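Late entry, evening session. Most of the bench is empty. Finally got around to the prediction I had been postponing all week. Sequence below, unchanged from the version circulated by S.P.
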Amino acid sequence: MGWSSRKPTAESSAVENGRADGGHGVFVHVACDLLFFALLYLYLWLVVEPHLIFHGSDRITNFPSFYKTWDYFIFHLSRPGGLVEYVSAFLSQLFCFSWLGALVVAMQAWAFTLLTASLLRGVGLGRLRVISYVPALLLLVLYGRYTYFFPTTMALLCALALASLHVRLTVGRTRMAAVTSFIILSFASYYTAGAAVLLFALTCAIAELLSPNRRWLAGLYVLAAAGLPYLLGVKVFGVDMDNAYSDLLPISWRLLEFAARRRGVEIVYVLYLLVPGVMAVAGGASVLRTGSRRARTPNNGLERRSVRIASPVWRWSVQTLSLVVVAAAVAYGSLDRAQKTRLAVDYCAYHKMWPEVLTEARHTRDDPFVMHAVNRALYHTGQLGDSMFAWPQDPIYLFLTGTEYPWVYWQSYALHLELGFINYAENALIECMAGLGDRPMFLQQLALINMVKGNLDTAGVYLHALNHTLFHSGWARYHLRLLEQDPNLTTDRDVQYLRQVALEKDYPSLGLSPESMLSCLLEKKPANRMVFEYLMAWHLMNRQLTRFITRLESLRDLGYEALPRHYEEAVMVYAATARTTVQLRGYEPREEVRRSMEDFLRTLHRYGRNKQAAQADLAKGYGDTYAFYNVYGPREKTK
């Protein structure tokens, strides 16, 4: 005998099976689900924006690559959990487009809801169906924090699907049928989802504990599951013990040993323990009440009337509205806006969307990594010399040189490549691959660098690898054809520009201060305007005004038609402090800049020696000037 011997009441039958008003109740239920998950999809698409997770920057260190090759497929089929990892890697690539990534996550959330409801209904807890929406809310939290646990949650989804199948297949069946089903599905679970078989077995064991005639099977399930990873994983597939019992679980060392990967892992713990926990607690309580329930003779008429107090439309509408309100509160409270800004700024910088960098950066103005990208964007939009002090500045923002930034390879690669230190950029990208995996954007940039250097064979290796990816194959095929037709790449503007600014042989930039590094590069490439502006910014931020004044004579040679505003302000600050006159090298001074400087000094002198008392007053009208930075900006010494 199985659970089929249980005689449900009229109320439980109606409510749990959604037939309180015939098929109408089921239709309303499905319609309300569609509304809820449609709203969840829109939130993920328009607010979370999964393409930021796909980009990842250096914040998401375990995002997988995917290759359209037979070897890649066979590699995943050859080990436990490989099938889930393969499917997860493929679906994760769809995050490249936010609307597709949001659809993937929304469908995963809906699947969790359906499976949770199915398992609760299968053990007589259908009245707790509202619990089935909790996984969707937990996924909202995970993605709102910009974490990546997709393979781990897919493994859980696979385990719950097989557990639900086991419960359905064994209702009313013999003990032998239940054991046979468990053994077959356990092997399937371990092969497809790795160590998530432990969750599958736990769920099945709790389900058996709630069955009046098969409770002894629970112990058998637990023992079998405990030995299966060793038998299949270690002995058959040659997996080491730790991985055999932890791969694809949130307790895996692959997650917990890296701070960036374990961020938000406590939410995954809740997600994993939710279904078996609810089944154990609520199911156990239900079993304890069974005796007293049987002692009472239910009034079926009263029960039917209690079910029909509210129509299905009204009941589900109220429940859906309540659920939407709770989901909105969860989404609002869990969205990591600072993390989103940093990812959005980095995404725009990588794609050279410089105006968008400045727009996104206005949401977070105290993140050094964001300000680092802002300075690059200011240069590329022609505003570095005119507007840099409208943003929070610190010398370390230019190169992220502080000791508190030990791993800045991703940020430093882009800046050094633009400045002309091409070998340093290549080394930084190789470090990125070692720490973050062979992401297509790393392969693409390494291919570009080797084309610039003329290492066409090495470039070809990266291009052929890119050709097997989903969304970078077009770029790879174009450059492979270009290499065949024009090996010198004379028609590729990016390659030609980088060849113009690149040093033939890099200096050991790691051992040089930023000033020395920029000076060396400017000596070799005097026409490199970006190097010049970064060196001038370095002088200004470190108050090295004498060196700054000396380099003003290069402005005409570099084609500056007007003196940048901050340069003119710095000249006036230097003239006032050194009590000397500085020639503007033929540039016309601007009256508004002179007047602003005079007003600033007048206001400062009004407060006497109490500069701190004057700060708030001066910030209102002069907070975006070099004069204000010179007085109140950071003064820490930076190498």
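Two things to note before I forget:
The CA atoms of residues 60 and 147 lie 7 Å apart.
The chain is about 70% helix and 0% strand.
Will write this up properly tomorrow.
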